[in-house]
Specification:
Elements: E1 5-10, E2 13-16, H1 20-24, E3 35-39, H2 43-55, H3 60-67
Antiparallel strand pairs: 1-2, 1-3
């Protein structure tokens, strides 16, 4: 797991990426542009994992990339 705080922003709403309910509360639809904010000691590695996750056409790599430091 990463120690950095990872947040998604949509309009005036902010979601903690570690909380599915928080993400759902954004009410973002497919192809919506989201801002991603990362803060912490390992934010560079966390940023790479988030980039890989969002670039992936499959949801499977998302979970493994965000739960493993790399």
């Amino acid at each position: 797991f990463f120690h950095s705080t990872i947040s998604l922003k949509y309009g005036h709403k902010i979601a903690d990426i570690s909380s599915l309910m928080s993400i759902i509360s954004l009410s973002a639809t497919m192809r919506t542009t989201l801002d991603v904010e990362l803060r912490g000691d390992d934010e560079v590695a966390a940023t790479r994992a988030v980039e890989r996750a969002f670039a992936s056409p499959s949801l499977q790599p998302v979970a493994s990339d965000l739960t493993q430091q790399g």
